[in-house]
Amino acid sequence: FVAYRGQTELLGPLRKIELYEMGWNLKDGLRECLVAAAPYGGPIALLKGHYRRSPSARPQLEIYSSSGLPLASFPWKSGVVKQLGWTVSDDLLCVQEDGTVLVYDLWGGFKRHFSMGNEVSQSQVLETKIFHSPYGTGVAILTGALRFTLATNIDDIKLRRLPEVPGLQEAPSCWAVLTQDRQSKVLVANGSQLFILDNTACTPVTPPGLSPQASSIVHMCVSFSYKYLALLTDSGHVWMGTSNLKEKLSEVDTKIKTPPKQMAWCRRPKSQQPSAVVMWDGLLIVVGECKETIQYHLDDDSVLVPELDGVRIISGTHHELLQEVPGACEEIFKIASMAPGALLLEAHKEYEKESQKADEYLREIKEQSLLSEAVRQCVEAAGHEHEPETQKTLLRAASFGKCFLSNFPPEQFVSMCRDLRVLNAVRDYTVGIPLTHTQFKQMTVQVLIDRLVYRKLYPLAIEVCRYLKTPEYQGVSRVLKHWACYKVQQKEESDEVIAKAVSVKLADAAGISYSEIATKAYESGRTELAIKLLEFEPRSGEQVPLLLKMKKSPLALSKAIESGDTDLVYTVVMYLKNELNRGDFFMMLRNQPVALSLYKQFCKHQEQDTLKDLFNQDDDHEELGNFYVKASYKDQRLEARVALLQSAVDEYYKAKNDFSAKTTEDEMRLLRFQRKLEEEKDEQLVGFSLQDTMTTLLSVGLHKHAEQLYKDFRVPDKRFWWLKLKALAEKEDWEELEKFGKTKKSPIGYLPFVEVCIKHHNKYEAKKYVSKVTPEQKVKAHLAVGDMEGAAEAAIERRNESEISTVLSRCSATTDHLLMERLNRAKATAVKK
Amino acid sequence: MAHTEWKDAPGLPDFSLLKRLARDQLIFLLEQQHEVDKLYKVELKPIVSSSDQLCFLIRPRIQTVKWISDLVNADKVAGRFRRYKIIFTPQKFYACETVLEEQGVYGDVTTDEWNFYILPLDDDILSLELPEFFRDNFLEGDQRWVTTAGSALRLLQSVYGSFSKVYGIGRCAKMVYESWRELMEDGEQRTRQPEFAKVFLVDRDVDFVTPLCSQVVYEGLVDDLFRIKCGSVEFGPDVTSSDKSIKVMLNSQDKVFSEIRNEHFSNVFGFLSQKAKNLQTAYDKRRGMDIQQMKAFVADELKGLKQEHRLLSLHIGASESMMKKKTKQDFQELLKTEHSLLEGFEIRECITYIEEHINRQVSMIDSLRLLCLLSITENGLLSKDYRSLKAQYLQSYGIEHLLTFANLRQLGLLEEQQAGETLTVMESKVGKLVNDKTVGKLTDAFSSLAKKSNFRALSKRLALVPKSGEEYDLRVPRDMAYVFSGAYIPLSCKLIEQVLERDGWTGMEEVTRMLNGQEFAVTARSKTDAQRIVLVMFLGGCTFSEISALRFLGKERGTYYVKQME
């Protein structure tokens, strides 16, 4: 058994490569099967026996790899399937008669279903086409009412019902979906008439130069890129042109008038020649630019799978690729080719044989200075070859040629070697993804890795990532994450085993999100495993949402606090608040001071009463007291304020804070006093501090009442004296001031008296108090009233050097000449001492 | 900052880049809102605008969000239909969304975030402009701004290059560092820019003493008297000697200000008068000029002179009004008391002075400031003093200050000595008898009993208070103490100086123990000593005196200090 055949047949400008001998064992081949094969070497789905509509024999749905290895198989139990198709991400779509579309994964697992709308389910599905566009995979349906319904992207379904086709009495002879101008359109043929349907209109069109003998278009196909269109008429002509119907490329007569089974484009990107493949039972015709067609026979029922750069032909036993011969290959392998690549290959062959001819060939190339072109050709051709031996030969030749070139950039050669190694690995029979190099480049490594992961080929995927040096974050780590997500769904293994296996494998991979894996575990009903996995998550913030989802709120709360992210803590706290009853909620907060203080902050603004409850629960009487005090200031009514203060007093006593309690009681007394006075004297007082109250009273002359406060509230003497002094001076009531000064010995001394009088520009009154000032302050007092002599006298008497200096500095040389002399003398003596 | 000593000192990076960055982001956000009709300050009052779209740019504060909710609800009641958008800066908080939800307006408003972190106030000052940082973090125990600070550091790093070394002290500093490190690990570091600076993170509660002292450097005084907000100040009519107030930007663009901002106040007047004379001479030049010269003079110099003239008269006005307020007896005595407290002598007299200060209702804030300074330098007040001073304060300013005192106690700013505190006395006695090591252990044991400021011991160890009696020439400052008239070197700045000198905390074990530990020093991968830019980040705000002290330090060491504050 040859796993990878790779035999190449050259058919004029085309070549046919045998990809696989199919590994499946189908009794009746593909006859009576509904077949769908995904592009880019994707999987193949078969629905067997669906034409027999007997309830006893259910059809069987089977999924195979491109090499025919079974992936899934199960009896079809749902409704009648009209069409199978694959999405861009390798999911299988089964369109039922009633317009329901069922989505299965590669392994036959049911994923979801969606409907194509009421209109479709009422009038039933007549025909369906599944198509791909830059927007994803789409489904187009022709209903029994001869109307088209279309969804451009099945992952974001927006159903569009296209306008009616005029004169359509029965099912159109053929139709196709086009993507033009970022819009999906339907091209319909009704007999010889052709229409384009878009969202708003149905426009009749005529393909330029379509031969007039045709009375009906029986088949049509659009190229992989949607750029080209081929039409087959009942007269057996194939018209080929651009899909915008502006240009005709060629028209060829097949001379066969029966309707074909399938038709597909077979064209390389950037190729100049149009070529389409038409398939009848047992016959395949390739039509191109020239009038001649290439025909060959098919032994078996086959299916055509259009690809980016060719057509795959799948039969019951074989899998082949039909494509235009790539330029580089043609140049090199054409018989008697003198292209530089061909010469280089020849040179290398001679070199292997140790023949001097090698030199001749090389010289020939070098003379035309085409050596770098030759190397490039060989490398490119190697990329297009499927047979590893041929690849090697070409690459060796390229490498040989490279030796004779200085500064030839190595990148192309190196990356081709890498790509080929990867391609050969995925083309392997066991993997079964027969990608061409062109397809691989179009698809990108990322997508290839995704596909491998999807097929659960984790080790290969990791190998590919490592080999291609894909950044770990997008490569190995991603594969490992998928592996872990798959692993946690394996029900037969115990939590411990899985958790261990996952942690060992993922240990040193960068950028792994354990929370994602844990979410998967939780979704498959394994909460315990999820918690275990979350333990590995280094960012505690990431753990929180899942923990909440799993109702592990205490753990979520502590993790949120650990993360140091206040916002996350808030999130959990608010969640808990709604989830738990109040008592439990408070209890939980109590054990988490950080969360508690945050919640308190929130309550301060939003829920005052809750705040009180919180303090109550903690028996925090001090805070409760503060709370009531604060509340009392927000209330305008006196009674309410006093009541609140009383509550505060009670709390302060409970907190054994006698000081605060007493002060608060005083405040209550003060409030009552203020209220009483306000009523009696009509003076705005309520809410003033004790000091302000007294100031106000004194300023309006209510000395008695001020006096009463002074006694009742044990106001310190000093304070009262200062107050009264200021108040009297303010009113310039000098008589009262003098009386007051004489009531008893001033606790603040008499200097303030002097100063206060001076402040109000009453030197006369000020002088009255100078004599009473203590000796230490005498100088200052004299200076304050501007009595230089007195100041000098006092300073000299006290023999204080610094005081003498102060006085000196205030003397002016012109007026106080004598005084200064005296002072200077005194200073001298004071210094001597 | 010009310095001739170090020719090879690195230039400061261009921080205006940050400004541009922030502006572009904001414009981008606002342009989504189409045309902006008018700008309002968010307050709780009805909005009189006929516009049917309102956009709010706010800090994520619950109170503000509530106001907005009320506005929306009021509109609803009035049957007005408007569209509302709230842009939170620097980030959206879940709690704010909860408020919107609870007020029933969640569906009516759309929200957005503007990740604006740092405002460059000057060539060497960056600010997060988060006045609530201190209260939230140190009083309420809400660490929501930690990540903001971390993000700000990351922003700086991504724009200007990585940091070669990170030092820090304090719990919050540690958390900020952690948060920033996590952010750095999460994000991919693609650009490998050269290293940009060393970073020093310091919690405000490491040094409460410095902000409690009256400022005497010009810029500090301007702040104390007129309040500098976002790098600008509003001078009232008494300064401008007209009937209008003038808003002035205070930064190094202001040629006059930049020369006096760091000067001790006693030097400022002399400088200003000299400047005035120079200006006069410059003006006088035009006498005897011919037409050609005059033309050149008008074209080149006159505008500059006019500008300088304007600024000079403003600053002279400001210093005059300072003189009026600050050279009075009161202020001198206030300073004297502060100095005594810092030095720790004549405490009784100080208490008497504070008492009088309270009784005479000199200033509500100053009284509290003195009380706190007393408490911190003395490791709490004696029970008797505490009660009597508190009672007097309440008598002066009302009982609502019970709450103020409760908050101050929680912060450790104003405390009553507990019975256990008498141990301190014992501790110091024991300290004289046994060797240093044992003292260390004892101190540990004692510190665990109560959180103490240990200011006295710290001051001794770090020589924060110069020996009294020595003359200090304020014109030629010899150390950072000049910012407090030579009486005290700011603890925070001293720590920074010491740590940078030692390149770490080694040899300062005792100091850090007294500061309750939590210090760290982390070296980045590569080692380049060429970096002499130091980024100091004060978590919870810093004073202009500290900035001046650090500028002085920078001049001495040929280092640039970039300050960042909350």
From TrEMBL, chain A:
One of its GO terms (biological process) is intracellular protein transport. Signal peptide: none annotated. One of its GO terms (cellular component) is late endosome membrane. Residues 512-827 form the Vps16 C-terminal domain. It holds the Pfam family Vps16_C. Keywords: Endosome, Lysosome, Membrane, Protein transport, Transport. It is found in: Late endosome membrane; Lysosome membrane. The keyword Secreted does not apply. It is a peripheral membrane protein. InterPro entries: VPS16, Vps16_C, Vps16_C_sf, Vps16_N, WD40_repeat_dom_sf. Residues 15-414 form the Vps16 N-terminal domain. It comes from the Eukaryota. Plays a role in vesicle-mediated protein trafficking to lysosomal compartments including the endocytic membrane transport and autophagic pathways. Believed to act as a core component of the putative HOPS and CORVET endosomal tethering complexes. Core component of at least two putative endosomal tethering complexes, the homotypic fusion and vacuole protein sorting (HOPS) complex and the class C core vacuole/endosome tethering (CORVET) complex. Their common core is composed of the class C Vps proteins VPS11, VPS16, VPS18 and VPS33A, which in HOPS further associates with VPS39 and VPS41 and in CORVET with VPS8 and TGFBRAP1. Interacts with RAB5C. Interacts with STX17, MON1B. Associates with adapter protein complex 3 (AP-3) and clathrin:AP-3 complexes. PANTHER family: VACUOLAR PROTEIN SORTING VPS16, VACUOLAR PROTEIN SORTING-ASSOCIATED PROTEIN 16 HOMOLOG. Belongs to the VPS16 family. This is Vacuolar protein sorting-associated protein 16 homolog. It comes from Cyprinus carpio. The gene is LOC109044911.
TrEMBL record, chain B:
This is VPS33B late endosome and lysosome associated. Pfam families: Sec1. It is found in: Late endosome membrane; Lysosome membrane. Keywords: Protein transport, Transport. Its main location: membrane. Transmembrane segments: none annotated. It is a peripheral membrane protein. The gene is LOC109096266. It comes from Cyprinus carpio. The lineage of its organism: Eukaryota, Metazoa, Chordata, Craniata, Vertebrata. GO terms for cellular component: late endosome membrane; lysosomal membrane. GO terms for biological process: protein transport; vesicle-mediated transport. The keyword Protein transport applies. The keyword Protein transport applies. InterPro entries: Sec-1-like_dom1 (IPR043154), Sec-1-like_dom3a (IPR043127), Sec1-like (IPR001619), Sec1-like_dom2 (IPR027482), Sec1-like_sf (IPR036045), VPS33_dom3b (IPR043155). It comes from the Eukaryota. Belongs to the STXBP/unc-18/SEC1 family.
